[in-house]
Amino acid sequence: MAKEKKAIKSKPQVLEEAAKAAPKEKVVAPPRTSSAPELLRGMRDILPAEAKYWRFLRKTAEDFAVAYGFDCIETPIMEPTNLFVRAVGKQTDIVEKEMYSFDDQGGERVTLRPEATASIVRAYLSHGMFNIPQPVKLWYEGPMFRYERPQAGRSREFHQVGFEILGEGKPAVDAELIIVGNAFLRALGVAASVQVNSIGHAGCRDPFKAALLQHYRARRSEICEDCKRRLTRNPLRVLDCKIPECQPVKNSSPQIVDHLCDDCRTHFMKVLEILDEADVPYVLTPHLVRGLDYYGRTVFEYVPAGGEEGAQSALGAGGRYDGLAEILGGRATSAAGLAFGMERIIARMREANAPVPELPAPSIFLAQLGEHARRKAFALFEKLRAAGIRSAANFSKESLKQQMEIAGKLGVRYALILGQKEVLEGTLIIRDMDSGVQEIVGYEKAIEELRRKLG
Ligand code: AMP
Fold this sequence. Notes:
CATH architecture of the largest domain: 2-Layer Sandwich
Shape: elongated
Strand order of the largest sheet: 1-5-6-11-10-9-7-8
Strand content: 15-25%
Helix content: 25-40%
Radius of gyration: 28 Å
Number of domains: 2
Distance between the termini: 23 Å
CATH topology of the largest domain: BirA Bifunctional Protein, domain 2
CATH class of the largest domain: Alpha Beta
Largest sheet: 8 strands, mixed
Bound molecules: adenosine monophosphate
Number of strands: 16
């Protein structure tokens, strides 16, 4: 028996191998082998082989949320289009090119959310959360949709986990988010650094935009068509450009920190002082502006250690968005937030072979033989589950040999065997899987006996 067991792979082993074999980043659709329905481009299935990473990521996010006092919020995946147009900004890539928008059956223009902050601010306002003690700390997790060109690290449906702090404008909030994000990535075994910048408030940005325009106009022949368009419509967005030919112009462009007013400069210095005090390393990144219009003052982005420069590698990002509630027609509300891309984090965890906990393995396999026993086995399985004894079974298998093979693969310590004879006698067999020794116990005593054996 023991010899046989060695040759058989345990379930964790099998899953681990499957996880390694599973595609890390699906960029191209699988080859067409049949007329079966296909995935939409840029969408992917998350298969069981990857489940342990998702489970660990979600569990870690929840642990952090509890530790730092964030309450969970879930908002609809679909919102009125206008919410995102107003919040994210008309002249951003997201609103101009990337939203999944359509008219619903009632003729209302709706959009699959490209991000969650707008929805959370909407919820904060519409539920009067400004009336409860501030700040309000919320976290969320779920799918987002952006019609982007799919490539490694970029898909059209992706998942974010995020943390938002509303109703507080102090620099400590910005620092808290950066610190939480940093510790979160570390807890997941992902090496990253955080880039930080301040883009001031609107009053600081106006003179900066003028300086930026002057610089870019003088070098118009060196930039891409998109940047030329951005210059006339939303100049700050030229700094989001990742196209290599634009980088020399970007790198020599004016820096917004030189245009910060006293208040914004003091705010930024305080954020950095807290980070220094907390020993959180950061990289001052003068051209980091973030691709959404609602940000002001502190902005930051987590980039993987050793990762290439570029939008496709950022693991997460965030910043302060004090003006957003007012843009949405609500009262002035200071707020800041942070969102991580879950697929990108998981890709890094897998690359780094980050240790990820497995689900506890079952210690019992419940085998049944015959129709009568099978019916009774369901009740027994439920008893085992209620007693907290992790068990496995395969109720559709008829042969004991097959069931014992499964038990062997799972590496359980004991098999419970319930046959016709045992049902009639009110007993069952407990088989020690290592020694092969079997004993008969009374049906009612089985749980107690197993508890004793498993210690
Ligand atoms: P953003 O909402 O644009 O600030 O993005 C926050 C994070 O979400 C990024 O740093 C990425 O990790 C992730 N992310 C954004 N867009 C995509 C995408 N199309 N595919 C995969 N992850 C994405």
